Structure formats: C-alpha cells, structure tokens
Amino acid sequence: MSTLGRTSVIFDLDGTLVDSEPNYFEAGRQTLAAQGITDFTWAEHERYVGISTRDTVALWKDRYALRSPLDALLADMNRRYLELARAATHVYPEMRRFVELLAAEGASMAVASGSAPAAIEAILTGTGLAAHLTTVVSADEVAHGKPAPDVFLEAARRLEADPADCVVLEDAAPGAAAAHAAGMRCIAVPYVAAQADDPAFATAGLLLRGGQREFTARSAYDWLARPASAS
C-alpha cells in the first residue's frame, strides 16, 4: 500500500509542471500586437501568471479598450498558444520525476489548470505526462477560475477524494489562494520569485521560495508522506 494513504495530488500545469509561460507571453504579445498593442512586455505578462486564459484576455480587453469580441480574442490567443506549445514545451525534470514517483506508488493524481482544454491536452500528450495524468480539469469547465476554488474542487470530485485529503502543487498566488479556499494543503513553488511574499503563499503548507531550483521530487514526496498534522 502507498505510504501516502488517501492523499490525492492535484497539479497546476503552467509554471508548475511545465515552463509554458514563455509560450503564453509570446502568444499574448502576438495577440495584442494584432490589435495594435505593440509594447506588451514580460514584466506586464508576469502580472497575469496564475490567472486563467479567459480571465486574462478579459482583463486585456478592458485595460487596452480592445474592440474585438472576447470570444474572438480568446480564440486567437489559444490558436497562437497551441502552435507554440506543440512546437516546444519544457517539463521541469524534478516535476516529471515526482509524477513518476507518485505513479509508481499508485497515487491518485489530477491536473487542474486555467488553460483551455485543448491546450492542456496538447501539452500533456506532447510531453508524455498524459500517461500518468488522466484526470484533467480546465477552468473553462467551472464557473470561476482561480483564485476561486472551483477547479480544485472539481478535480477532487472527479478523483472521488475528500478536499481535506488533497494536496495542490502551485506556482502562482491565485492558485495558492484557490487551494486554501478549497480546504486543501498546498506545496507552493513560486514561478515569479518576487511574488513569494504574497500573502496567498503564506497559506501554503510548504513554500519553496527558490521555486523550481529548490524543488526536488524526493523532498516533496517525503513531505507528502508525513501526517497532515505535522506538515
């Protein structure tokens, strides 16, 4: 029997399992450039890390007074992102090892992401992670994206797991806030180091301020294997 007991592990995708943010930045830059906004920078992109694609595009529409319909902008953004994601998406090596370690233990796992379903499928299939991560929830399938808990609660429902038995891996403050709101423990691996002091990360059971440089599959597994009361 697994040393994890009833624990289920729910992974965020972008910035947590895979370094897809450069692709999202480029897709966003291209989408905005097509609308006449040509000065979108990486620093501006970082403001939207952890927010669903739909919510991000909705914020852009208001901020830049874009005239195109939201659904048209979202379709353009997703199309551009898919082209980039299919060409190249980097999986963090220790995260892959962690997934494989959990799979070997027969642990219950899911992906809960703010990306569109097609984007999630493309990345999981292209990277080979789909072999282990078959339960997938997109923010497009629930009423509210992160920081609302909906996507994590739906993942728990599909796993037939009690939220209190779930541990979320997240790289962004909205995701950490969503995990807390869902009543789940969280391992936080900040993608943007400057955001590590965000109050939402203070709710995480384990905060790795060094981000992916600090994360190791074995230390995360050992933390998971500890009784929740000791975490």
Offer a concise description of the structure.
This protein is an alpha/beta fold and 231 residues long. The chain has helices at residues 21-33, 42-45, 53-63, 70-87, 93-104, 117-127, 150-159, 173-181, 217-225; strands at 8-11, 18-19, 90-91, 108-113, 136-138, 166-170, 185-188, 206-207. It is 42% helix and 12% strand.
Structure report:
This protein starts with 7 loop residues before the first strand and ends in a 6-residue tail after the last helix. With 231 residues, it is an alpha/beta fold. The chain has nine helices and eight strands. It has helices at residues 21-33, 42-45, 53-63, 70-87, 93-104, 117-127, 150-159, 173-181, 217-225; strands at 8-11, 18-19, 90-91, 108-113, 136-138, 166-170, 185-188, 206-207. It comes from Streptomyces mirabilis.
Topology:
Elements: E1 8-11, E2 18-19, H1 21-33, H2 42-45, H3 53-63, H4 70-87, E3 90-91, H5 93-104, E4 108-113, H6 117-127, E5 136-138, H7 150-159, E6 166-170, H8 173-181, E7 185-188, E8 206-207, H9 217-225
Parallel strand pairs: 1-4, 1-6, 4-5, 6-7, 7-8
Antiparallel strand pairs: 2-3
Helix pairs in contact: 1-4, 3-4, 4-6, 5-9
